[in-house]
Design brief:
Elements lengths: L1 E6 L6 E5 L4 H10 L3 E3 L1 E5 L5 H11 L4 E5 L4 E5 L7 E2 L1 H4 L9 H8 L1 E5 L12 H9 L3 E5 L2 E5 L7 E3 L5 H12 L4 E5 L5 H12 L3 E3 L5 E5 L4 E2 L2 E3 L4 H13 L3 E5 L7 H10 L2 E5 L2 E5 L9 E3 L11 H8 L4 E6 L8 H7 L4 E5 L2 E6 L7 E3 L3 H13 L3 E5 L2 H6 L3 H7 L4 E5 L6
Parallel strand pairs: 2-17, 3-15, 4-16, 7-8, 11-12, 20-21, 24-25
Antiparallel strand pairs: 1-25, 1-26, 4-6, 5-6, 8-10, 9-10, 12-14, 13-14, 17-19, 18-19, 21-23, 22-23
Helix pairs in contact: 1-2, 1-7, 4-6, 5-6, 6-7, 8-10, 8-12, 10-12, 11-12
Bound molecules: uridine-diphosphate-N-acetylglucosamine (UD1).
């Protein structure tokens, strides 16, 4: 299995980096293509990531034609004709986000069977909001033998209040509602840019959705949807990761195509720390002087709050700012595993339930560490950039789910980093 080796110390990042289309946008967009029973749907700016291959396979498993032209970053989907109702376990189990096919399959076929995502049970990693919303629209849901089965001859519009603005549940319900009879109102809906991107595609396909990006979505059901063409929005989390990398290394980097508005919560915290963040025509420029960085307090929240998907990377930035910073994680439980790994690199942290206190500005040491999840893997690599000596980050399957050529992009900015087959590496 591959590992990344970073030689720390002098890794001031300088130059320009280009951002891909957003993983978290393209996965629900691919699910949306299931709804079009006429014509092709063409998605451009599609990132080449293992999660995208997995979602393509989930859709193919429904007897839908999916072609991925990687050289052109374009996916073409033809979902016309009869399609299957069962999303196969072998792909769904690889990726929790596959659950977003439940709403579209049900809306299109009146019947859907989807394996429990990621092999986890509803109790420990809930999808209750997805299911409650579909039930409110008239679906009957049963769970047996590791599958979720949903039936409804015709979904009916409903007013649904979500206890928490879940991104995936908002996407699932929004897609189901496009073909329901009557109007659906989703209150306390998620407001992430990826929700807006999905609504844009669905409206191009003939849906009638209003309010995307606000807390109330109004979806007037239509009889049919057709194929459409759409460019995937830029990845704000990949952009944010490079912004943090530049700031940590005292660099000067233009993150091309990064969208200011989408990264507002991150930018505000970087400015508070003393990082220079400026908007240019081509993207966002980061300049920083590490010796002047100040500690901050950050709390993760649903959008437009600080994104939980930037939490791990931001703790790496906190580790280089002299003084005590606080990170409060309110979206996911147990999302501080990277801090346990970072201890091997002498990052000082104290964790009390949802709060981590990070004492930054002390010398960091390279070490062998393991990625515990996608964003943790990026955070460990960033820490390796500034730690003395060599850091080896293993279990890159996590990294490949969400970052395209991460080490090559960092190397092009001047980092001393390479990817190796661990079996061959005896360091
Ligand atoms: C999406 C993102 C993920 C990001 C997360 C929060 C994709 C593919 N993934 O995940 O990268 O970290 O948003 O910004 O877009 N919850 C419930 N019941 C539910 C659903 C969720 O209690 O039915 C809880 C979850 O346990 C979690 C919180 O809500 O604590 C947020 O989850 P959610 O917004 O649903 O995240 P995802 O859509 O899974």
């Amino acid at each position: 299995m591959d590992s990344i080796i970073v030689k720390g110390g002098d890794n001031r990042l300088v130059g320009e980096v280009r951002i891909e289309g957003a993983k978290n946008a393209v996965l629900p967009l691919l699910a949306a293509t299931i709804l079009a029973d006429q014509g092709q749907t063409v998605l451009t700016n599609v990132p080449i990531l293992s999660d995208v291959f997995t979602m393509n396979n989930v859709v193919r498993g429904l007897d839908i034609e999916v072609g991925f032209d990687e050289a052109a970053n374009t996916v073409r989907v033809d979902a016309s004709g009869e399609i299957g109702s069962k999303a196969p376990y072998k792909y769904v189990n690889q990726m929790r986000a596959s659950i977003v096919v439940l709403g579209p399959i049900l809306a299109r076929n009146g019947h859907a069977i989807v394996s429990m995502p990621g092999g986890c049970t509803i109790g420990s990693r809930p999808i209750d909001l997805h299911l409650k919303g579909l039930e409110a629209m008239g679906a009957t849901i049963t769970q047996k033998a590791g599958n979720i089965e949903a039936c409804a001859d015709k979904l009916k519009g409903a007013t649904i209040y979500m206890d928490f603005p879940s991104v995936g549940a908002t996407q699932n319900l929004m897609m189901a509602a496009t073909l329901a009879e009557g109007t659906t109102v989703i209150e306390n809906a998620a407001r992430e840019p990826e929700i807006v991107d999905l609504a844009i595609l669905l409206n191009k396909m003939g849906a009638q959705i209003k309010g995307a990006g606000t807390e109330t979505l109004v979806i007037k059901g239509v009889d049919k949807l057709h194929g459409a063409e759409h460019q995937v929005v830029q990845d704000r989390i990949e952009a944010g990761t490079f912004m943090v990398a530049a700031a940590m290394t005292g660099g000067n980097v233009l993150v091309k195509d990064a969208v200011w508005e989408h990264n507002r919560p991150l930018i505000s915290k970087m400015l508070e720390m003393g990082v220079s963040v400026t908007e240019e025509d081509a993207g966002i420029r980061i300049q920083s002087d590490v010796s002047r960085l100040k500690p901050v307090m950050v709390k993760t929240l649903p959008h437009p709050g600080f994104p939980t998907d930037m939490q791990a990377q931001f703790t790496a930035l906190m580790a280089v700012a002299k003084g005590e910073s606080t990170m409060i994680e309110t979206v996911f439980e147990n999302r501080f595993q990277h801090l346990e790994e970072m201890r091997r690199m002498d990052v000082h942290s104290e964790i009390m339930r949802d709060t981590a206190i990070i004492t930054g500005g002390t010398p960091l040491q390279g070490a062998k560490v393991m990625s515990t999840d996608l964003r943790a893997s990026a955070a460990l690599i960033l820490t390796g950039l500034v730690a003395e000596g060599e850091t080896l980050v293993g279990k890159l399957t996590h990294l490949d789910r969400g970052y395209y050529k991460f080490h090559e992009k960092l190397a092009a900015l001047g980092a001393d980093i390479k990817r190796v087959d661990s079996e061959e590496y005896d360091g």
